[in-house]
Amino acid sequence: PASRMANRIAVAPGATIKQNPDGRIVTGMDFGDSGTRDTSREYGEKLLANAARFLPGIKEARLEVVTLGHRVMPKDEHPIVGFAGKCRNVYVAAMHSGMTLAPIAGQVAAAEILDGVSADLLDDYRPARFA
Prior knowledge:
alpha+beta, two-stranded antiparallel ribbon, elongated
């Protein structure tokens, strides 16, 4: 863990950087597909070196682990929200921009699930469009 360098997520060309409360640095390329499944130490060192261009204090950081994340990206790049076809006990809320859409998506999903209403706002984003 490093001393406090960043109090928010930094987004730079080819790098995203955040610092966890315990001081550990988490970095990656960007929000898109990296085009690789490489979790080697060498790849991790490249990510750290790239992040250090934007946050020089990272130069002192030591690589602990390299992991891959999977970001949900619906086929047509639009959210998928609603009950899953004939399975009325399965509700889907999948979207790339879940962090920014979470407040409204959660509110509308709760109304649909708990109150049995159908929100017209979500008509273009229903799972049935893939059927």
